[in-house]
């Protein structure tokens, strides 16, 4: 992906910035493979809520903070139920549901469904964007 901007300096939409190689890596989820190092180090799990930017920490509601009760993962309920095609609020609902229902059975179910999502390239983008818009917070 490039950092291309319009005349006013506004970042262009993903479809105008993403390279062919970047598009292939995103569609096949190969861009996720470097996270395996974090799993081997013990900083992440294979399954759990996706890690988010540190800048978002102060933006979480008390309920949303519950996602931090478990290690972050490469895949989780939110990815299985929409990936980038769902809103931030929906992602947090799925993340919290994962934490509340923590079990090996749930992890196996997520793993199987995630493999299907990757193989059939489902739920990659929302409104033509390959990435989720920045989280602006939901604390009231």
TrEMBL record:
User: Which Pfam families would you find in this protein's record?
Assistant: Bac_transf
MF (Gene Ontology): phosphotransferase activity, for other substituted phosphate groups
Q: What range(s) does the Bacterial sugar transferase domain occupy?
A: 8-119
Q: Which domain of life is it from?
A: Bacteria
Keywords (A to Z) from UniProt:
Transferase
The record's section on InterPro entries has: Bact_transf (IPR003362)
This chain's protein is named: Undecaprenyl-phosphate galactose phosphotransferase
């Amino acid at each position: 992906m490039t950092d291309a901007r319009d005349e006013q300096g506004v970042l262009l939409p993903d479809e105008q910035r993403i390279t062919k190689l970047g598009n292939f890596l995103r569609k096949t989820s190969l861009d996720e493979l470097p996270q395996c190092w974090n799993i081997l180090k013990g900083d992440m799990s294979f399954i759990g809520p996706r890690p988010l930017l540190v800048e978002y920490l102060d933006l979480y509601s008390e309920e949303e903070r519950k996602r931090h009760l478990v290690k972050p993962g490469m895949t989780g309920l939110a990815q299985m139920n929409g990936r980038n095609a769902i809103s931030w609020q929906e992602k947090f609902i799925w993340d919290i549901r994962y934490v509340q229902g923590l079990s090996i059975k749930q992890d196996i179910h997520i793993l199987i469904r995630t493999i299907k999502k990757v193989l059939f390239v489902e739920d990659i983008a929302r409104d033509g964007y390959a990435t989720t818009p920045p989280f602006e917070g939901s604390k009231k």
